[in-house]
Amino acid sequence: xxxxxxxxxxxxxxxxxxxxxxxxxxxxxxxxxxxxxxxxxxxxxxxxxxxxxxxxxxxxxxxxxxxxxxxxxxxxxxxxxxxxxxxxxxxxxxxxxxxxxxxxxxxxxxxxxxxxxxxxxxxxxxxxxxxxxxxxxxxxxxxxxxxxxxxxxxxxxxxxxxxxxxxxxxxxxxxxxxxxxxxxxxxxxxxxxxxxxxxxxxxxxxxxxxxxxxxxxxxxxxxxxxxxxxxxxxxxxxxxxxxxxxxxxxxxxxxxxxxxxxxxxxxxxxxxx
Length: 273
Known about the structure:
Layout: H1 2-11, H2 14-23, H3 28-58, H4 62-65, H5 77-105, H6 108-113, H7 116-126, H8 131-151, H9 157-205, E1 212-217, H10 226-231, E2 235-237, E3 266-271
Antiparallel strand pairs: 1-2, 1-3
Helix pairs in contact: 2-7, 3-5, 3-9, 5-8, 7-9, 8-9
């Protein structure tokens, strides 16, 4: 994904970035191209990851361990629909996040504090980041600039900006790696839990297991958040949804984790009849 974002950065010229700063926005064509890029990423990379995680999740439950003759079918309408829906959601969310991030850099208040050329050079390394990450990167750049001015009052403004940009660019690389890891972990968890759910349903359709209830299980460590801690041990029927106050990441009616980025929760399925 970091290579993917790097390619997007290289695809847009400095002239285009400079004009975007002057206009206060990037062109709609650029945003459409980024959306198409995400579509290709989903088709060529993420679908393969989803398929593997779905298969792994389908046999992950102890309940499935002793089932003779069970074979997971990855090509059911339910799974194909889920993959299409998940892909569409990810493309839309990623494109929207990218648009919002660039808009944050091109906001009136930001343009009033920085020159056209300065902002044009700041935008490219930030392509692929979320809006909060972009704002954090801009604050980092401004802090570096301020520190250099205080520590080196005779240093040329161009030199200060160049050094601050280099530092911000390295910070952006770290932010890209963090975001890529978050997406990968979240998508793996989402498809793994979907695979577990679908595996149980397929086994039920084959009359290999009976009625099942599901129990929310956290990782049990200090990293468990308040949202997931409140769900720990909660038991509901297969087709019921888990309730929570805040928004839910997973599509499909809140049937399975994850509840938030990098959520490490899973479901235990228990045969009751």
